[in-house]
Write a structure and sequence with these properties.
alpha/beta, globular, 2 domains, pyruvate-formate lyase- activating enzyme, 385 residues, 17 strands, Arc Repressor Mutant, subunit A
Length: 385
């Protein structure tokens, strides 16, 4: 399998906006997690759903993967590379770049110490995505984040000293105005750390989260569409002026530092998802696992698939998904063969500055990205295969 995602569900606490499948734990059952992941991979292999193509990207997401001991991270990397050796690996075997294997771990800044960073690099991890989210102490407390504002810089410096040349930072915009957020300040502080990649996400209000309850109770008001648009375009302006390529709706990269794993999602490549609540995709089939950690672990050790469900997309659904995912990227999509009504919609979007034509391709502008969901919904209503 060329692309593999491992969902590490464990967290010290749940963030105020988070609706991901996580398990809040003080003590992380690392050995049990590694054993369960290995068992699921073996079950997939035995079922014929695991192809033997060389691994290109491995992504440890969560949850908080940085809560795993470095030895567990090394064991997972070794296992998915088919190595019998556990630890350490020479870093030269894992160059960063277009041809090398990309191994990413998501991390909280407070988990990254010099020894941990060095151990990750020795294990073969060559890309780290830091969940910074904000540089405001008050906002970090409101988010229920575990790290302090100053720890982001310490984490980046530890990673650089360990030899990492591919470090990404996550930020969140469109925060409630009552928090007095300052996105420009956050962007400037992030740029001062000289990251290779930035992911800038708009805050969404998900059901059954503390944030949703606060809004429902009238304790805080969401930011609103106008502020969302203004801050999205501000991030585009500041980061592209700083030399970053805005290559996907939420993602910016220095040359050669795009996320290759996430690109597999956007281009429709097959990928495997292992762990509780993980999703996988191949051909026209999307599958997902059961969510609770305890149920997942019990199921795989009983020799049963942890799959909770799957869906097979129709050709029409798959084609529309390709358009939606393609338009999320700066590369866009190849010129489409649509009916006259859909072609008229596209032409209207071009005239409105939401889409642009580049040779035989169509791509969204930054303003178009803000209207993408609405555009694709209108296209789907008149889709012709």
């Amino acid at each position: 399998m060329k692309h593999v995602y491992l969902h590490v569900p464990f967290c010290r606490r749940r963030c105020s906006y988070c609706d991901f499948s996580i398990a809040v734990r003080r003590a992380i059952p690392a050995a049990q997690y590694v054993a369960a992941i290995k068992r699921e991979r073996d079950l997939l292999f035995a079922s014929g759903e695991w192809d033997d193509q060389p691994l290109q990207t491995l992504y440890l997401g969560g949850g908080t993967p940085s809560l795993l001991p470095p030895e567990s991270v090394a064991e997972l990397v070794a296992f998915f590379l088919g190595s019998s050796s556990r630890f350490p690996f020479p870093a030269s075997r894992f160059p960063t770049g277009r041809r090398g294997l990309e191994v990413t771990i998501e991390a909280n800044p407070d988990d990254v110490t010099p020894p941990v960073a060095a151990a990750w690099r020795a294990a073969g991890v060559n890309r780290v995505s830091l969940g910074v989210q904000s540089f405001s102490p008050a906002i970090l407390r409101w988010m229920h984040r575990t790290h302090r504002a100053g720890q982001a810089g310490k984490a980046v410096r530890a990673l650089r000293r360990a030899g990492f040349d591919n470090v990404s930072l996550d930020l969140i915009f469109a925060l409630p105005g009552a928090l007095r957020p300052n996105l420009r300040r956050d962007l400037e502080k992030a740029l001062a750390l000289e990251p290779d990649h930035l992911s800038v996400y708009g805050l969404s209000v998900e059901p059954r989260t503390p944030l949703a309850r606060w809004i429902s109770a009238g304790a805080i008001a969401p930011s609103g569409d106008e502020r969302y648009a203004d801050e999205f375009l501000l991030a585009h302006e500041v980061l592209t002026d700083a030399g970053f390529e805005h290559y996907e709706v939420s993602n910016y990269a220095r040359p050669g530092r795009r996320s290759r794993h996430n690109a597999a999602y956007w281009t429709g490549e097959p990928y495997a998802g292992l762990g509780p609540a993980a999703h996988g995709f191949a051909g026209r089939t999307r599958r997902w696992n059961i969510s609770p950690w305890a149920a997942y672990e019990r199921t795989v050790h009983q020799g049963k698939s942890p799959e909770a469900g799957r869906e097979i997309l129709s050709e029409e659904e798959r084609s529309l998904e390709r358009v939606y995912l393609g338009l999320r990227t700066r590369s866009g999509v190849a010129r489409l063969h649509l009916g006259s009504e859909a072609e008229a919609l596209l032409e209207d979007a071009v005239q409105a500055g939401l889409l642009e034509r580049r040779g035989r391709r169509i791509r969204a502008t930054p303003k178009g990205w803000l209207a993408l969901d609405a555009m694709v919904a209108r296209l789907s209503a008149c889709w012709v295969t």
